[in-house]
Every structure is written in structure tokens, then in C-alpha cells.
């Protein structure tokens, strides 16, 4: 029993209000799910030499950064992240819980679309297996355990939890 409790609390958790949505993954797609960061594109290194003019090279870097920013904004809009509703969640590096209008069955796989501020926003597609779904007065409390999550993506979630905890501690000190 104690071992189970320790495993359940492997990660710190925090309550937060974040842009969030969940949808059921079809049984055909369950084996294909893999968590990912939106906007993470790996282009092959272009064999372009940096200009000898240092000012020109600096300006090209600025333009490149602005183009990356615009591509990320476009990607957020195309994937529907710019219009996500906000929701109260309880999140950790191992999983999360949230209130849903839809009841889910234990073992269902959900696609969890969210934006986490860490302090710069990160748009994530995470997948979770439903481990509990409790009926409430209005809706259902759904608890999921993240599945097929890379450790670098889990690190974004853990950083978000610690970032929010630091914010709450600072707010308590100011009161």
C-alpha cells in the first residue's frame, strides 16, 4: 500500500487554470499516439555560411527569429490552440485530473491539448489513459495517467508545476 502511494506521488502536483481540451482517441488510433510539442520542427541544417559582415549576420538572425515566431503563431492557430477554452486542472509529471461533461471509461485514451506557461508558453499534445472517472453534481472528475510521453516533454510539465508553485509562494509572501 505504501509503495503504491509513493508511486502515485512520484511527481509534485498543482492546481492551475490553463487553456485545455480533451477528446477520446479512437480504438484504431490508440497505438499511434505519442506526446509532442507543437511547433517543434527539425529542419536539416542548411549549409549556409554566415556572411562575413557581422551586422548583416546579426540582422539575418533577427529576421530568422521573427520568422520562427510567425510560424509558431500560425501553427498554434492551425492546430486550434489559439481558441482553447480554459479549464481548472490538477497536473503533475505523471498525469492530471480535470472536470468533463463527458463520462469516460477506465482504460480510454484521451488526447489532451494544452498550453503551459513555463514561463514562456508551450503548446502540447499529451495522451492519457483514464484511471478514474467520478460523477459529480455537474459533470465528471476524470483522472488520467500520461502514456507515451518522452522525458523531455514530461520535463515541460514538471517545469510548469514548479513554475506555478514558485508563483504561489511569491503571492503568499506578498500578502
Itemize the secondary structure elements and their pairings.
Layout: H1 2-8, E1 13-24, E2 36-37, H2 54-78, E3 86-92, E4 95-100, E5 109-117, E6 121-135, E7 140-147, H3 151-174
Antiparallel strand pairs: 1-3, 1-5, 2-6, 3-4, 4-7, 5-6, 6-7
Any overview of this molecule?
The chain has 3 helices and 7 strands. A hairpin with a 2-residue loop joins β3 and β4 (95-100). It has a 6-stranded antiparallel β-barrel. With 175 residues, the protein is an alpha+beta fold. The model has no long low-confidence stretch (mean pLDDT 87). It starts with a helix and ends with a helix.
Order of helix and strand elements from N to C terminus: HEEHEEEEEH
Distance between the termini: 39 Å
Number of strands: 7
What does the main sheet amount to? 6 strands, antiparallel, barrel
**Alpha plus pi helix count:** 3
Mean pLDDT over the residues:
87
- Strand order across the biggest sheet? 1-3-4-7-6-5
Name the poorly predicted regions.
none
Strand content: 25-35%
Radius of gyration: 20 Å
Helix content: 25-40%
Coarse structural class: alpha+beta
Q: Describe the global form.
A: globular
Short description:
This protein is an alpha+beta fold and 175 residues long. It has 3 helices and 7 strands; from the N terminus they run H-E-E-H-E-E-E-E-E-H.
Amino acid at each position: 500500500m505504501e509503495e503504491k502511494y509513493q508511486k502515485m506521488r512520484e511527481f509534485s502536483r498543482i492546481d492551475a487554470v490553463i487553456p485545455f481540451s480533451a477528446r477520446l482517441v479512437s480504438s484504431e488510433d490508440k497505438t499511434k499516439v505519442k506526446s509532442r510539442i507543437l511547433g517543434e520542427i527539425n529542419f536539416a541544417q542548411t549549409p549556409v555560411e554566415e556572411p562575413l559582415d557581422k551586422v548583416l549576420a546579426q540582422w539575418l538572425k533577427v529576421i530568422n527569429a521573427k520568422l520562427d515566431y510567425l510560424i509558431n503563431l500560425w501553427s498554434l492557430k492551425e492546430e486550434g490552440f489559439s481558441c482553447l477554452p480554459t479549464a481548472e486542472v490538477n497536473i503533475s509529471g505523471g498525469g492530471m485530473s480535470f472536470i468533463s461533461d463527458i463520462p469516460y471509461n477506465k482504460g480510454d485514451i484521451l488526447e489532451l491539448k494544452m498550453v503551459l506557461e513555463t514561463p514562456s508558453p508551450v503548446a502540447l499534445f499529451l495522451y492519457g489513459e483514464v484511471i478514474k472517472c467520478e460523477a459529480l453534481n455537474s459533470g465528471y472528475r476524470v483522472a488520467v495517467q500520461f502514456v507515451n510521453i518522452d522525458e523531455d516533454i514530461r520535463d515541460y510539465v514538471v517545469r510548469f508545476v514548479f513554475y506555478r508553485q514558485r508563483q504561489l509562494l511569491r503571492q503568499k509572501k506578498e500578502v
